[in-house]
Design a protein that fits this description.
The protein is mainly α. The chain has four helices and no strands. The radius of gyration is 12 Å and the shape is globular.
Length: 67
């Protein structure tokens, strides 16, 4: 079940960045000059560690949870 939860969180993070690309780090946003948004977001999420992805999810979706 843990893998499914991670996949769901990754999907939610992807959708959040897709709706609001300005939430991406500045250096990642700069890559949009070279690649489409969905590719930049996918690569950014793929480079996250499990811990960082969880912290990012908490920052985006559970602001009262310390990240």
């Amino acid at each position: 079940m843990r893998i499914q939860a991670q996949a769901e969180r990754s999907s939610q993070i992807f959708e959040a960045y897709l709706k609001e690309p300005k939430m991406l780090p500045t250096k990642t946003q700069e890559l949009l000059n070279e690649a489409p948004l969905h590719r930049v977001i996918t690569d950014y999420i793929a480079g996250m560690t499990d811990r960082y992805a969880l912290q990012e999810w908490q920052k985006l979706f559970d602001p009262y949870q310390p990240a």
